[in-house]
Backbone:
């Protein structure tokens, strides 16, 4: 009888350390889970902060992990509640055990009933242990998902680095092409400048040393009286003769300029600042008159064989004078037709 009582007491005393171990392991798992989650959140925040495109793709995965963690927390909370209930039950059992110890000598039947109660509590603890094992399995699954997420981040890092390297290489190529293009453009400008000088030299030889025809900067300037009557855009006989000489020089020069140089001959019409006195009433302003004269010159040059795509007509009215003042000499210099060999 005494040996049986000793065995029952030993069985009861071994129950409490097992429960403490389970509770301690469960708390350690919970703390470890929270630590892992905090570490993952910190790493994700630091690694993904500068990559907006990657962040868009990872937000969904992080949200899924957050939901899993919320579910895990709910499960942990439920487990904690169950443990609390079991602890309360265990406390009650211990109270019952203490009470039964005082009655063991005289109430063996009551002791047996208490043993049954302890056995029931032991079964409950086993069931709770199974719940804890399921929780550990869920934690392991979460760890696996976090590892997969890290591998994805690493792959994206590699892809981004490769993309940045390609961008740097492209920028280098673009800069090199830009320098080569600038050199090519500079060469074209130099070539066009050389042909412009030849063009001016030929015009000077053809037209002679006339006071009403001069070179101003990069333009050949004709006084309007060479071509037109006052207030008219019709080219006179003298002007036709001069334009024929000019057209012949342009046709000859166009055969020498390479096809890949986008040159044009710009014809600009200018007037003085006095109001128009057209006898026909065709022009409402000096601007209209200057544009009409430039167009007349262009049409005649086209008739003489110059391709239309190489000609440009522009009218400036009185708004681009080359000499200020209200004298007849200033007025005469400002009434002009200018020719400029330039790029398209």
Residues:
């Amino acid at each position: 009888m005494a040996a049986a009582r000793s065995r029952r007491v030993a069985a009861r005393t071994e129950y409490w350390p097992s429960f403490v171990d389970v509770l301690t392991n469960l708390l350690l798992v919970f703390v470890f889970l929270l630590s892992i989650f905090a570490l993952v959140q910190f790493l994700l925040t630091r690694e993904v902060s500068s990559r907006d495109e990657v962040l868009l793709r990872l937000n969904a995965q992080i949200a899924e992990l957050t939901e899993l963690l919320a579910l895990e927390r709910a499960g942990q909370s439920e487990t904690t509640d169950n443990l609390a209930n079991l602890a309360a039950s265990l406390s009650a059992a211990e109270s019952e055990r203490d009470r039964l110890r005082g009655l063991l000598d005289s109430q063996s039947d009551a002791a047996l009933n208490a043993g049954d109660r302890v056995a029931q509590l032991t079964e409950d603890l086993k069931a709770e242990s199974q719940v804890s094992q399921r929780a550990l399995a869920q934690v392991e699954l979460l760890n696996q998902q976090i590892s997969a997420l890290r591998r994805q981040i690493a792959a994206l890092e590699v892809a981004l680095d490769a993309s940045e390297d390609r961008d740097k290489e492209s920028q280098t190529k673009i800069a090199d092409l830009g320098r080569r293009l600038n050199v090519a453009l500079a060469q074209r400008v130099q070539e066009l400048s050389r042909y412009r000088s030849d063009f001016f030299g030929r015009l000077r030889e053809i037209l002679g040393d006339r006071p009403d025809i001069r070179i101003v900067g990069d333009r050949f300037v004709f006084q309007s009286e060479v071509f037109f009557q006052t207030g008219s855009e019709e080219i006179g006989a003298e002007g036709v003769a001069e334009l024929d000489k000019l057209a012949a020089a342009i046709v000859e020069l166009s055969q020498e300029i390479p096809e890949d140089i986008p040159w044009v001959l710009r014809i600009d019409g200018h007037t003085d600042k006095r109001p128009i006195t057209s006898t026909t009433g065709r022009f409402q302003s000096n601007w209209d008159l200057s544009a009409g004269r430039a167009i007349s010159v262009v049409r005649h040059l086209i008739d003489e064989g110059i391709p239309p795509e190489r000609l440009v007509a522009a009218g400036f009215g009185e708004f681009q004078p080359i000499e200020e003042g209200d004298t007849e000499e200033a007025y005469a210099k400002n009434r002009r037709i200018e020719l400029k060999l330039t790029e398209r």
The mean pLDDT is 78. Strands lie at 213-216, 219-223, 263-270, 311-315, 336-343. The longest helix spans residues 108-207.
